[in-house]
Amino acid sequence: MVVDCEELRKEARQLKRELLEAKQKKEALKPKEKEEEEPAPNSVVEEYLQEKKKYEDKRKQQPKKGVSREDQTLALLDRFKSKLTQAIEETPENEVSEPEADNDEGWMSHILQFEDRSRKVKDASMQDEDTFEIYDPRNPVTKRRREESKKIMREKKERR
């Protein structure tokens, strides 16, 4: 019986080793399969995967938080500012151009114009679309009026 137990233990150890080796082989094969990636059956899915990979690569290239990241952001901002001022300087003031589909920078030279309402003065006595009635139910004057109207309504009901 002692011999049987030792043989069983040896066999168990050998099986464990074989299982570990098989597991390691599978793990070694998985990264290779991942790199190969079978072609996508649909062109839209394939395009999506390419875009995803492109942006993952860009994300990995970006520096982590800190001074270098701030410097990069400020450099991008300065580049945008210079591009904007250049677009404003190049566009003549009186030119009205059709928006072009190829050129997406037409908005940069656009000047915001709006009505000048600073000269209009609000008069409380005039009624227009911008005048609103203010009603506060907590106001003591409003409470008195409400009580008075209730009394009048009760009196009318009693008369009937």
From TrEMBL:
<keyword id="KW-0413">Isomerase</keyword>
<feature type="compositionally biased region" description="Basic and acidic residues">
    <location>
        <begin position="145"/>
        <end position="160"/>
    </location>
</feature>
<protein>
    <submittedName>
        <fullName>Peptidyl-prolyl cis-trans isomerase CWC27 like protein</fullName>
    </submittedName>
</protein>
<feature type="compositionally biased region" description="Basic and acidic residues">
    <location>
        <begin position="113"/>
        <end position="125"/>
    </location>
</feature>
<feature type="compositionally biased region" description="Acidic residues">
    <location>
        <begin position="90"/>
        <end position="105"/>
    </location>
</feature>
<dbReference type="GO" id="GO:0016853">
    <property type="term" value="F:isomerase activity"/>
</dbReference>
<feature type="compositionally biased region" description="Basic and acidic residues">
    <location>
        <begin position="49"/>
        <end position="60"/>
    </location>
</feature>
<feature type="region of interest" description="Disordered">
    <location>
        <begin position="23"/>
        <end position="160"/>
    </location>
</feature>
<feature type="compositionally biased region" description="Basic and acidic residues">
    <location>
        <begin position="23"/>
        <end position="34"/>
    </location>
</feature>
